[in-house]
Amino acid sequence: MSLIRPEVTALAWRLREVIAGAVILGAGLWLIGMGGYLLTPLGTGVSALGVAWGILAYRRLRFAQDVDSPGVVEVDEAQVGYLGPQGGGFISIADLEEIRLLTLRGRRVWRLKQLDGQALLIPVDALGAERLFDAFAALPAMNTGDLVAALQPPEATGQNVPTRADMPEMRLVWRRQGKGVVTRP
To answer: Measured between alpha carbons, how far is 74 from 81 in angstroms, rounded to an integer?
Structure first.
């Protein structure tokens, strides 16, 4: 018999990285409070590390969705894979050209497009989809704040909502820079 309620234990487990960032921040503030020529700069560095870790952990927490779709997402050796009951595949992160967030028939999916035009659709709420945050964050010029904001409903972000119910919503999250034909006037 546990003295801590299972809901509290589950919440603490979900927030473990945010809590670790707060503990590191507290340790840094304690070092700053000790004072001195050595401990104050060391405490400032530790505090900055705790703040950065806490912010990244909070964004990662907001990115994660409850598992509701069939299939499993794998991220291994700079390769993203989705193994679903009716489809799936693998795509190299180095060959990634663009990332879009689609809403198809009421379900949200990531659309990963390769340089050769092939695309991989991954449900946002598939098992292991939270691993995509770190894979996407490693892309050049990716803003993790924009990545998390893409998962918000369009009404919350002030974007236009499609007028027809059967029209899929499509948001561009990231596109590789420097590819394609450039025409000059």
So the answer is: 5
Give 10-residue mean pLDDT values along the chain (185 residues): 87 93 97 94 97 93 82 91 90 92 88 92 91 90 86 62 57 80 54
* Spatial CB neighbours of 130, under 8 Å, sequence gap ≥ 6: 60, 63, 64, 65
- Gyration radius (Cα) of the chain, Å: 20
The single residue listed with the structure tokens 């950065």 is 52
Instruction: Output the DSSP codes for the chain.
Output: --SS-HHHHHHHHHTHHHHHHHHHHHHHHHHHHH-STTHHHHHHHHHHHHHHHHHHHHHHHHH-----SSSEEEEETTEEEEE-SS-EEEEEGGGEEEEEEEEETTEEEEEEEETTS-EEEEETTSBTGGGHHHHHHTSTT--HHHHHHTTS-HHHHTPPPPSSTTSPEEEEEEE-TT-S-----
The two three-digit tokens of residue 82, written as one number? 């989705």
Cα–Cα distance measured from residue 57 to residue 67, given in angstroms and rounded to the nearest whole number: 19
**Cα distances (angstroms) measured from residue 3 to each of 8, 12, 149:** 11, 14, 38
Instruction: Give the type of residue at 122.
Output: I
Q: What is the pTM of this model?
A: 0.68
